[in-house]
UniProtKB/TrEMBL annotation:
Cellular localization per UniProt: Cell membrane
GO molecular function, one term: metallopeptidase activity
Species, as recorded: Evtepia gabavorous
Gene Ontology, cellular component aspect: plasma membrane
Top-rank taxon, per record: Bacteria
UniProt-recorded name of the protein: Protease PrsW
Keyword field: Cell membrane, Hydrolase, Membrane, Metalloprotease, Protease, Transmembrane, Transmembrane helix
Membrane-spanning segments: 37-59, 71-91, 111-131, 138-157, 195-216
Length: 231
C-alpha cells in the first residue's frame, strides 16, 4: 500500500471521532476544560487499547474452551466480552484520571471527559479496522461504530458527574451507586449493540435509533443543567 493511500485511510478513520469531540467540546459552555487535560484523556483512552486487547484475547480463549450452545456463545462473545471489558477499562481510565481532578467542578465536565476517553479508544480501533479493510469500512464505522462509542462515553460521563455531585454533597452511598452505574449502563448498552449487530439484523437498527434518541436527550439535558458541582 502506498504511503499516500495509508495517510488517506488514517485521515478518514480519524475525522469522525475528531468531529464528534469538537461537537461535545463546543457544548461545554460554562467552563471549558483545559486542552492539556483533554489531550491526556484522549491519549489515555487510546492507550487503553492495549489492556483491552489482552483481556479480550484471554476472555475469548476461555469462551472457546467450552462447548456452548450457539446463542450462549454469541451472548458471551459479543455481549459480555466487548461490553464489560471495553467499558470497564474505559471506566477505570476515566475514574483514576478525573475523580480528583480540580477542573472537574461542573456537571457537564464528566460528559466531556467520558467522550474524550471513549473516542480516544475508538480512534485507534477505527484506524486499525480501516487500514485492514479499506475506505468502505471507514464510511460504515463513521455512521455506526464511532457514534456508538461517543454515546457510551456520554452515558458514562453523565453518571460520573452525577456521582461526583452526590459525593460533594455528602451522599456517599448514592455516589457509589452512581459510579457503578457509570460502568454497568454503558457496558450493557455496548453489549447489546454488538450482540444485536451480529445476529439480529433489523432489530439492531431499531435499537441504534432508540439509543441515538436517548443519548441526544441525555446530552441536551446535561448541557441545560450544567452548573457548579459544589453548589
Amino acid at each position: 500500500m502506498m504511503l499516500s493511500s495509508i495517510l488517506f485511510l488514517v485521515a478518514a478513520a480519524l475525522l469522525p471521532p475528531l468531529v464528534l469531540l469538537r461537537v461535545v467540546y463546543q457544548m461545554d459552555k460554562l467552563d471549558r476544560e483545559p486542552g492539556a487535560l483533554l489531550l491526556a484523556l484522549f491519549f489515555r483512552g487510546a492507550l487503553a487499547m492495549v489492556p483491552i486487547l489482552v483481556l479480550e484475547v484471554v476472555a475469548d480463549q476461555f469462551i472457546d474452551f467450552f462447548p456452548w450452545r450457539p446463542i450462549v456463545y454469541l451472548f458471551l462473545a459479543y455481549f459480555v466480552v466487548p461490553g464489560f471489558i471495553e467499558e470497564g477499562v474505559k471506566y477505570r481510565v476515566l475514574l483514576r484520571r478525573t475523580w480528583n481532578e480540580p477542573h472537574f467542578n461542573h456537571r457537564f465536565d464528566g460528559v466531556v471527559y467520558g467522550v474524550f476517553v471513549s473516542l480516544g479508544f475508538a480512534a485507534v480501533e477505527n484506524v486499525l479496522y480501516v487500514l485492514t479493510s479499506g475506505f468502505s469500512t471507514a464510511v460504515v464505522r463513521a455512521i455506526f461504530s464511532i457514534p456508538g462509542h461517543a454515546m457510551f462515553g456520554v452515558v458514562m460521563g453523565e453518571a460520573m458527574s452525577r456521582a461526583k455531585w452526590l459525593e460533594v454533597h455528602g451522599q456517599r452511598e448514592q455516589a457509589g451507586a452512581a459510579r457503578r452505574r457509570a460502568w454497568l449502563l454503558p457496558a450493557v448498552l455496548h453489549g447489546l449493540y454488538d450482540f444485536l449487530l451480529v445476529g439480529f439484523g433489523w432489530i439492531f437498527y431499531g435499537y441504534f435509533a432508540g439509543l441515538v434518541v436517548y443519548v441526544v436527550r441525555l446530552l441536551r439535558q446535561s448541557a441545560r443543567e450544567d452548573g457548579p458541582i459544589n453548589l
